[in-house]
Amino acid sequence: MIKSKNLKKINNLSHGFFNSNGGTSKDIYKSLNCGYGSRDLSSNVKKNLQIVKKKISKSARDIFLINQIHSNKFIYIDKKYKKMIRPEADAIITNQKKLPIAVLTADCVPILIYDDKKKMIAAIHAGWKGAFSNIIGKVIKFMKKKGCNSKNMIASIGPSISVKNYEVQEDFKTKFLKKNKENLKYFINTNNKLYFDLSSYVYSSILKNEIKNIETIKIDTFDIKNKFFSARRALSLNHDDYGRNISIIMLN
Questions:
Q1: What backbone phi and psi angles, to 5 degrees, belong to 108?
Q2: FRET label pair with 3: which of 18, 137, 177, 228, CA 20 to 30 Å apart?
Q3: pLDDT, average across residues 78-97
Q4: Going by C-beta distance under 8 Å and a sequence separation of 6 or more, which residues neighbour residue 126?
Q5: pLDDT tens digits for 233-251?
Q6: pLDDT band at 115; cut points 50, 70, 90
């Protein structure tokens, strides 16, 4: 488990960015696969989620997960929230204590946000589609509507695919440039190949929403040495599926 340097200073908060180590799954899912969306045995995923929950807090409620759809939709959980089993969304916001909220990734960017005054947290799954459709801005705007202030907010960008391993096509670049010509700075041409810097694009999106306390954990999920699940690496190895990493945050 990797921790944010900024978030771990906060006493009333538990969090972690988990890699593939420490679970019960086998073969290509070895071993801490937390994705029900994978073709791993659901019993293994359930056991792995229990392992994660115990590492976060022995008194935590069940981990709240969503069915991620690469959108800009989010779920807000307050004391009035009516429980749903994995609603379709790509971010979770809550002010409830002892409720661990989490997102799953396998190259996409996990983001954890905390407001130190309002005591509100968010977990965001930002693939290129979600980031492009402004899920980050929507989450931060909603948190501000609920009384949060960007001056009191901390954002931690978790491990994700590095620019050198995120090859894209020209039509991908065209889409981003149509939206904003300044997006050119997130693309790199090397040896006649085009690469996209997703993590930097996400950082910029957070910064545009006036949060200045931002940390980026620069660990490449594609690099097998780092022991994270990676969809792109799985594809390159001709695997027919892949495990999911979990990033989690909870108010104590």
A1: -65, 170
A2: 137
A3: 93
A4: 90, 108, 109, 110, 111, 135, 136, 198, 202, 205
A5: 999 999 999 999 999 999 9
A6: very high
DSSP H/E element including 116: none
SS3 call for 126: strand
Q: Are strands 213-216 and 167-168 parallel, antiparallel or unpaired?
A: unpaired
Give pLDDT, residue 83. 79
pTM of the model: 0.98
Alpha-carbon span 136 to 71, nearest angstrom: 11
Residue 77 amino acid letter = I
Class of domain 7-164+198-251: alpha beta
The pLDDT value recorded for residue 33 is: 98
Digit-coded pLDDT (tens) for 164-177: 999 999 999 999 99
Q: What is the DSSP string of 163-221?
A: GGG-EE-HHHHHHHHHH-GGGGGGEEEETTEEEE-HHHHHHHHHHHTT--EEEE---BS
pLDDT at 14 over 90: yes
Residue 92: is it exposed, middle or buried by C-beta count within 10 angstroms (0-12/13-18/19+)?
buried
The C-alpha atoms of residue 53 and residue 32 are separated, in whole angstroms, by: 12
β 187-190/75-77 pair status: unpaired
